[in-house]
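Revision sheet: structure tokens.
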Amino acid sequence: MIKNKIVAINILLFGLTIIFVLFSFFSKPFIKSFVLRSGEMENAEAFKQQFIITFSRPMNKDSVVSNFFIDPAIDGNFSWAQDTLFFTPESTLKYGQVYEIRISNQALDIYGKQLSREFNREIKTKPYQYIFIGNDNRLILGSMSGGQTDLAPDRKVAKYYYSREAKSIIYIVKQEYQTDTEIYYIDDLNTPKSQLILDNYKNVRNLAFSANGKNLYFQADVPAEEADGKSGTKKIINQKLFMYSVPEQAVKEVILPEALSNFRRYWLANSDEAFIFNSFDNAYYLKLINDNSQVLLGDYGDYGGSNLMVDKFVFTNKRYADYDSGIIFFDGQAKIINQAEEIGALPSINDDGALVSYSYVLKSYLTKAKLANYNVRVVDVETGKTTFTTLGENIGFMESNFSPDSKYLTVEKDEKQSDIHYVSDNYGDHIYYPIKDEPDYWDDKITTIFYDLSIGKKTNKIVDGYDLQWIY
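Predicted:
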């Protein structure tokens, strides 16, 4: 009896297998699902996007790829995981753009059967978005298509730090140098998720947010005896670097090489492993620390930024030392970017490391203690040629910033800051004061101007605020 049941089950399974094979042979494949790695069809992310397409059965990969189309056309890479196709664009998609993804019914499966029907799907990427601090100290999320959102209602924000990967923000309500600094955390650009409190640290300052949004780094002063675990009465202060883990809500010290025990400032180069240190030990220098290796970048250096791959940096060298300030591009070797007849400052770099922008003034415009007629220049790193300049607009000594796709350049402008004196302190820092002793001089409003680099012209978009960062 049992033997007969086993035989019957085997016959049934064999029959089902035959049916499946016949069905696979005579039926046509179809697309089971189409999803995006990030965002929705009508609000898709433009940065680090991926199209994921799952078929009903194994496909002829070459046939699918040759019948895959995107309009407007974009370059990308194909990969497979069983019956699922992944298309990864090589670069950032256009913002606010409608894309049509199409797979022709000429695409074949492994049995030579055509796709049951042509596949069409439209997606629309998000508009350009950015964060900035308004002149009323509000933290604002804005868009090129219009509209603004107050990210920190009823709070005056002194500084913020944005994580590109996590799309989260840490912002400071009070000034960084106050011991009672209030630090808040915004998860995914939504309402404040939690409050971060740093207790028992003096002079909390110079914060940096990791790319993944998990770690907050900050600089603080501690007595040397306390740091070394010794007792004593000497009032010796060491600068230490600490890390606050957002998930763990805990603080620990970042152990640095002995040579950097007396650093002045630091920057986090879009990675938890790559630090830029601005140190002084009778000489003021800039060092790159990556995987415990050290690279001396230059004297009197000031880090300007790095691309997302953290393999290309830009910084100033000998900042204002004898009016000889150079913009240096570094990708393992140093290359001077600015022109010989000008002084450069405040550099920034786009994400693929191909373009550098910086504020500059011609040496011929200088008198003994006056800087004037500052503008912004964009340079192609490979050719060394200028691709854009605000020459004639007298922007002032202000910062610039590339959009994720480098289509736009934002430039801060203060009408009065182009007419200033400066003096230098013992560390090479610059201190500005106005030519005219106006009591409300530093209450000037700063505007951020948007330039379209594709046509080399100023747009009609102007933001009443500063410290603008693009959302990726």
